[in-house]
Amino acid sequence: MKLSVGLKIANSLSLTPQLQQAIRLLQLSSLELEQEIQIQLESNPLLEKVEELSSADADSNSEAEHEYENKDLTQELNADYLPDDLPVDTDWDEVYTHQSTALGAAEFEEREDNRQSHLSLQEHMLNQVNLLHFSKIDQLIAYCIIDSLDEKGFLDAEIEEITASSQHLLQELDYDDIIEDDEVLVVLKHLQHLDPIGIGSRNLAECLKIQLEYLPATTASRYEALKMLEYYPLLVANDINKLMKQTGLNAEQLKAAINLVKTLKPYPGSDFDSGESEYQIPDVVVMKKQDHWQVQLNPDVMPKLRINSFYSSMIRRADQSSDNQYLRNQMLEAKNFIKSIDERHKTLLKVASCIVRHQKAFLEQGPEAMKPLVLRDVAEEVELHESTVSRVTTNKYILTPRGLFELKYFFSSHVGTTAGGECSSTAIRAMIKKMISVENPRKPLSDNAIANLLKEDGIDVARRTVAKYRESLNIPSSSDRKVLI
User: Fold this and answer.
1) pLDDT of residue 21 exceeding 90
2) Residue 75 forms part of a structural domain
3) Which residues touch 250 (CB under 8 Å, ≥6 apart)?
4) Which of 109, 146, 181, 247 is most exposed, with the fewest beta carbons within 10 Å of its own?
5) How many domains are there within the chain?
6) Is residue 283 a contact partner of residue 301, using CB atoms and an 8 Å limit?
7) Where would I find the RNA polymerase sigma factor 54 core-binding domain in this sequence (predicted)?
């Protein structure tokens, strides 16, 4: 084998840091993108955010920039002496706002902060316990019970566990008393009649029973409802015939008792849900203008970035100092970051526009008109890789006249029709949901019956497929949906 040295030309693709940054920004959500931009603004002095200004501020800033450009900042910075007033990028009035005196008119209308701080369930219960005339030991037991409540208001611990924890705390306080389970049950009984009624119940049946007992004795069907709850497993199993036989109630009495139970609150702690609602901000907005669907990016999540002109003017071509080299590197990073953000917006708009073109029927008619669409179809049309389309549609939301949807919602598999066409699985789910919403509750549609109805509409699906779609919609089976009274 002869060894030789030669030149060879070949094409290869290298994943540059700029390309890695563009790919990473592409898959970020609007909130994550905002956080990433804030990190870049704090770390790169040559990158700045363009703030929205009023017309008066814009005129004054344009005059200031004109005066700023007329000054030779390079000579000032290279001078042998320091001037008394160095150029700064912030005015005093921008930091310290003018406060009007008593003789002057107020610059803004002072408004009272009407935000309310909602108490948690535990705080609400502790406030009530502190008003009761409990002994120190009973108060300690009540604290342990309240600490064992879950977010629904149910007791998430056994009586023995609460007794043991209360006894342990009592020993730490140098008390010689012995706490028994009966004492815990007595304190629990007191707490269950505080607001909200039924708090600290160990199961749903006990919670409903406490609420029924709290109702006036003259309440219609109260006695029948209490008797029905004694056979709660039969009620859950929807075994109406056996329930009527065990309780001795007829169909009308049982129906009235069930209607009364429906008016009760199943979860006493539901009003004290501490979890804050999370609102999704749309990345793309779709609206219809002059019979045409227009797609545009949401301006509220489109950051406007630019290069800081002051620091960029300090860069000198021939200077090889460390400070000048640092400014050059920061300038390059800022330009690449702005370019990556711009490419992200262009790609997102291109993909969203393609999705809207395919799903016009959904926007005009609803989910039942959803067309089958996969990532490959969009990737081929916009001339992007399938993985790129997957990244740009993840955690991105589009606001339509029919609501806010994730871009992934518009992609679905297809099912063949008897006419040789295709139907979206999302459309089939919408059809199943509509059929079940108008069914007779006494004779609910089985999965086989729904499959036959879909076949009449030209959609050939198996019974197990209908069951899979029904379960994905969190709709119970026909036997669980059946109402006998």
Assistant:
1) no
2) no
3) 244
4) 109
5) 3
6) yes
7) 114-311
Is residue 269 a contact partner of residue 152, using CB atoms and an 8 Å limit? yes
Residues 355, 445 within the same domain? no
Surface-to-core class of residue 133, CB atoms within 10 Å of its CB (0-12 exposed, 13-18 middle, 19+ buried): exposed
Q: In 10 A of CB 373, how many CB atoms?
A: 20
- Residues 136, 186: one domain? yes
Phi and psi angles of residue 399, each rounded to the nearest 5 degrees, phi first: -95, 120
Looking at the structure, do residues 219 and 317 belong to the same domain, yes or no? no
User: Last residue of a domain, which of 375, 410, 445?
Assistant: 410
Return the pLDDT at 277. 59
- Print the domain residue range for 449: 414-481
Please check the confidence at residue 64 and state whether its pLDDT lies above 90: no
Task: Write down the pTM of the prediction.
Answer: 0.63
Does residue 431 contact residue 445 with C-beta atoms inside 8 Å?
no
| 58 within domain boundaries | no
Q: Are 210 and 227 members of one domain?
A: yes
Q: What sign results for the dihedral spanned by CA atoms 48, 53, 55, 57?
A: negative
Q: Which of 143, 136, 133 is nearest to 175 (CA)?
A: 136
Instruction: Kindly state the tokens that stand for 10.
Output: 């070949």
| Model confidence at 209: pLDDT above 50 | yes
Q: Looking at the DSSP assignment, which residues form a beta bridge with residue 404?
A: 399
Q: Which amino acid is at 192?
A: Q
- 368 with 471, same domain: the answer is no
Give how far Cα 38 sits from Cα of 185, 281, 302, 324, 341, Å: 54, 18, 13, 24, 13
Q: Which of 410, 437, 456 is the last residue of a domain?
A: 410
Instruction: Give CA 400 to chain center in angstroms.
Output: 18
Cα torsion 38, 108, 300, 45: sign = negative
Cis before 196 (ω within 30): yes
Residue 115 domain-assigned (yes or no): no
- Tell me the pairing of strands 305-307 and 292-297: unpaired
**DSSP reduced 3-state for 220:** coil
Q: Which residue has the tokens 């001339």?
A: 383
Q: What is the DSSP string of 59-83?
A: HHHHHHHHHHHHS-HHHHHHSSS--
List the single range of 174-178, 211-215, 392-396 with lowest mean pLDDT: 174-178
In a domain, 331, yes or no: yes
Residues 189 and 251 in one domain: yes
Q: Which of 13-17, 39-43, 46-50, 431-435 has the lowest mean pLDDT?
A: 13-17
